[in-house]
Amino acid sequence: MALMEDGVRAMGISDRGDDDQSPSDTPKTQRSDLGTLLRDGPANSPGELVDPAIPRGWYDGPIDAAGVRVALTDQPICVGSVNPRGTHLVVGSTDHALYEVQLATGKKTRTFHSNAYGHREWVSCVKHLPDGRFVSGGMDGKLCLWNEIGARCVELGQGHSGSVAKVEVSHDGSVCVSAGYDKTVRCWSTRTRRETASLEGHRAPVLELAWSSDGGLASGDRDGRMFLWDASISGKKDAVGKRKACEGHVTALAWTRRVGYEAVMRGGDVLVSGGQDGVVKVWDFRIAGKGACVATIEAHVRKNGSGAVGDVCQTRGGRIVTGGADGRLAVLDPRMGYATVGEIGAGDFVYSLISVGPMVVCGTGAGAAHVADVDGRDEPAVLYALGANKAAVRVLATGGDGRHLACAGDDGSVMCYAFD
Prior knowledge:
Layout: H1 2-11, H2 57-60, E1 68-71, E2 77-82, E3 88-93, E4 98-102, E5 107-112, E6 123-128, E7 134-138, E8 143-146, E9 153-155, E10 164-169, E11 175-180, E12 184-189, E13 195-200, E14 206-211, E15 216-221, E16 225-230, E17 239-244, E18 250-257, H3 261-265, E19 269-275, E20 280-284, E21 292-297, E22 301-302, E23 305-306, E24 309-314, E25 320-324, E26 328-333, E27 339-345, E28 350-356, E29 359-364, E30 369-373, E31 381-386, E32 393-398, E33 404-409, E34 413-418
Antiparallel strand pairs: 1-34, 2-3, 3-4, 4-5, 6-7, 7-8, 8-9, 10-11, 11-12, 12-13, 14-15, 15-16, 16-17, 18-19, 19-20, 20-21, 22-23, 24-25, 25-26, 26-27, 28-29, 29-30, 30-31, 32-33, 33-34
């Protein structure tokens, strides 16, 4: 129970359903119950490049700034995953259920919970397979593999003796990997539904997972330690490297692609870690066999304290964006040795981040979703903010055609926006 309570606090969810971690030095985001669109100059302002690969509406704002709200539950929504076709979002809640929403219409299409199927505790993670099925993990220690059609699931054994924190799926969908509070990382066959390996070595609950395009599996724990595993489907799963990533919890892990000269000469992915101490580190595991830290950035460390790194993403142009509890986004450029080339104020704790071509969308504790142009301007800047939810935005998702944005969080609803 103590570990579960630690997990609740780590997720930032309180019994009150709101957030009290807003930084005192940044203003609250302006919003209304119907949603507010805050513009920051025209989209053709000097120094801006418009990306023709995404709908023009991303620069000007959605068709309807109020969006379409679908109320799903009176409990917080914690996690989400978009299906491979980019048409539906599945979200998991603390009410033990999962819900599916169609992005184009904002309508609920399925509920995944019954006396016979599903979780008996909070849903803590969810991830789609390439064939449309998805895996969910919960604080009940269960892993459920759900069918693409209907609302039935099968359980992937009973490997974890504690809550499941994260789940990832291999690129071909044949292997599922889960991280647990029992200090293990476990591999499962999605065909046989049996455990194929238990990766042991962590001395604290494992909170984060990230799987690279070339097969490297990284895991991070509550003691700030990070492991790299050989996650090839066949053969023994070994720890390739062990590193102290931060002080406190590892709060974010993301594999990012190399850009420029590095992409040509080295290839492969680079790992970015974020910690409870507000420090971002970049790791190259092609150096010295076991890897090395090639950059340390105090991206979210301030004079009045540090803010945990909430999420990490990479734009199409290659820039890396991190969001933190200090209410800011930091923009790092790999071409300049991961130097900080911009900072963007978000007004509150940044819980979620996604990239949309040259842009990023961040979800905050105040219930707003900020859309920022990162690649197309000399200085990265917020274009506008959407009053997405009434409490923290923990899930952000876009459709496969890039014309829809969904935001979900602690108010138990999903907000859908359309762009043309």
